[in-house]
Each structure stands twice: as structure tokens, then as C-alpha cells.
Batch of 3 targets.
Target 1
Amino acid sequence: MNLIDAFESGAIAIPWAVSIDGKYFPSSTGRDAPMHCITDCNDKYCQNPGGTLLGHQCTVGFTYYHGKVGEAIIILFGTLGSKGWESVDTGIRQKNKDDLKGRSVSARDFSSWLEKLKSLNKLFVDYKNNILSEALHPLHETPKIAEEIRNLADSLVNLKPGKTFDERFSAALPAERGIYKGAQLLVDSFDMLSIFFNPESAKLGEKRIAEPYKLIHKLVLLLSNSNNGLTRRRPKIYGESYKKYLALESFRIIPLALLNNAIKYSMTEEVIIDVRDVDNGTLFSLVSTGPYISEEECGRIFERGFRGKYAQSIDRDGMGIGLYVAREAAIANRTTIKVVSEDLGYSLKSIPMARNTFSFVVRDVV
């Protein structure tokens, strides 16, 4: 359960009409938003980014407040702030006189209500984490077992002839390659779950020398035969990089999660990975053709548990884990993942297509 679920249930009193992540909720106490805001306002100035807890005035003089609870954006609009009635346009004031009763809300009033919602939201999050932890508790030894299997598979591959891992991997039997892939991806999955349940764990572990290009190349080797049930994806690497970095163990999770996401949601066969050295680091860009990501979704796509509008129709089993974990690993490694979705002007299976690019720059973690 989240705040929207709680509000929709009717079990939570809403003192003033608000919007949560763009969804409108009327007041449960009769103090609804002015009719001007609901029916006559065209610019929806209060919904634009940049609002604060202190409050701002819209174009007709109403005061609106922005607050955040967890990842949810809550907007209280159509109120009489500290300037009261006199701040509102005369004609609109007269027309909405009855609607404005009980709409005198100060920044302190709004902040106080938000603090209560934050406490409630924390209960939701803690409860969800406890349920998941209890469900996974019987598997607490499984990551160690997966690690042992991966090490054994690694030994099998290293016994094959060849000077490089690529050569030895290619010389392995198909069954041996399959065991290695499965074991490595299983270990990576447990690492991602660890960060999902405890984001702070992304900052733990010793810093090690990482060669990003080799890491990407190995990931592509492991994931190149992945099949999501629609079409076989073929990740291709462009560019080159010879730089080495001092990075945390969680660094590997960033390209792994992004590549997994691109493969999963690409609606065409090709997934492009561009790796290039820049002045202050190495730039990674993962490009695929998939569902259009709106501006609002771009701002929320890395939230825990969030899934885009068209994600469900492509992958029903997704849980909104991958990109959240990638963001936490990126924060730990002092970088930022950027996303750009360029509308291609056509649809596939009733889904608007876009050229989606996820990128980040790796630098030394010091």
C-alpha cells in the first residue's frame, strides 16, 4: 500500500483538496478546491515544477504549496495564504466566495500535515520491507551458494584453452557457458536485491580497480543471448575506452541494471552501447527503441517500485527494481544517470515508440 492507495480507500482524512503525482483528491471535510481551479483554470500554474513548502502564488492570486512524501509529490492548491483574500483577483474572488471558506492555509499548516503523512508512509515502507524480508529469510544462505556455483563455473571456463576470457569462454561447451551465465546473473541478482532492501549497502565494500570497457564487454557476452519473449536482443558496443578507475563493488550494478532494462523493454532487435573516454571520465550511453517515456515519467522512473505507463504490457513480471537499484549504485559511486526519450512519431502494438537513451559518466571514487 502507498499514499494514493490509502487516500483512495477513504480511510485517511484529507483536510484540503490536493493532487498527488497528478491525481486529484477532493477534501474529505467539505473544504474543496475553488471551482476556478477545477473548471476554469487553463494554465495549471500550480502543477509546474518549482513549488516549495513556503508557498507561491499562481497567476490569479491563489497560494499553492508543494511537498514530497517518499517519492510522491503532493500539491495543495487554491488556498488563501498569508496574504489572504486581498491577493486573489477581484472577479475570481467574488465568483468563488463560497468555495474559499476554510481555504486559509499557512505554510506551517501544510508542513505539519506532511510530517504526519511521512510518518504514515514510513509505516507502509517498513511493513512492506518486513514482509519481503520474512519471505526471503529462508533464502539467506542462497547468495553464498550462488557465489560458490559461480566460482566453480569460472574454474571450468578458465581450464579451457585461450589467452583471454573471451577465447576461453568461446572454447567452453554450450552447457558450461550456460552454467557460467546463469551463475553470474544469479549472483548479480542477489547483489541487486541487497541494494533494493538496503540502499546504503551500495556504499559498502572495498574500492577496486575497474576497467569499464572490459566490464561492459563481459556483460554483453553474458546477456547477448537473452530473450524476453518478443524478439532476441543483440547488444552492440561502439567506441572504446582504455581508462581504469577506482570504484566501489556496486559499480558493476549500474551498467548491468541499465543493460537489463534496455534488453527487456527494447521493441527492436538492436541495443546500442556507446563507450567513450571524455576529459573527466568515461561516458556510457545505452540506446534502444522502446516505449516513449513522458517527461513526468523521466522524473520518476528511478523511484523504488515505479513502472512506466507501458511497462506492464511488455513485462508483467517487472517490479520496478532495476532502475531504482541502478540509481542507488550510481549515487554511491558519485555519478548520475540521465534519461532522454525522443518520440519517433509511430506506434508498435499501440505503444508510442521512442529512442531511449540512458547515460552516465564514471569517474574515480575517492
Target 2
Amino acid sequence: MTPLVRFYARFLPAQAIWLAVTLTYALGIVSVLFFGNESARDVIYIDMENDR
């Protein structure tokens, strides 16, 4: 169980937990798509190549 599922389990009946979790994640994805900054073209990555 994820912390989000445990949180919803305290307040919702068992049948509604997965729907609430699904809607929460969907809202998060939609929020990122709508409010994300398109002008940020920088990519942060970690180079895992060995320098031998």
C-alpha cells in the first residue's frame, strides 16, 4: 500500500479508494501538462559513464 492509499483508506469506503487514487494521479498529470513551463528547455541528468 502506498501512503496515498492508506490516507484515503482512513476516510473512504474500500470501493472508492482506487477511484480516488486514480483521480488524484490524473489530476496531478493534468496539472503538470497545463501549468508546466514549456520555456524550460534545460535537461538535468547524471552521467553514469566510467572515465577509464
Target 3
Amino acid sequence: MNEINVEFTCPDCDKTFSIGTSDILEKETIFCNNCGCQLSEEELHHLKLAIRYMHDNKPN
């Protein structure tokens, strides 16, 4: 799978930032660099599951 950047828009300060899928899989937390708003543990877990699913089910 080619590297994909996931774009986030902070719900608190409305700033946009992006993180590569390989970086997301390695991170314990994801937070806005502008205000510090953090993705919940459950949201990060589900995001990682989706990334792994995409990787495992890529077309040949």
C-alpha cells in the first residue's frame, strides 16, 4: 500500500493537519499541534483497525 496521509480537522480550534498511515500505526496518541485536543483511545483504535484492514485487503 502506498503511503496515505489522513487529514484531520480539530473539533476545538478548526485547524487542519495530516499524518501518514505508518505514523498513525506507531503512535500511542494523536493530538492537534495547535491546541492539544486529543483523539480518544477508542477513535484511535478504530482508525488503526481501518488502516490495517485497508492494508490487508489491498488489490493484487
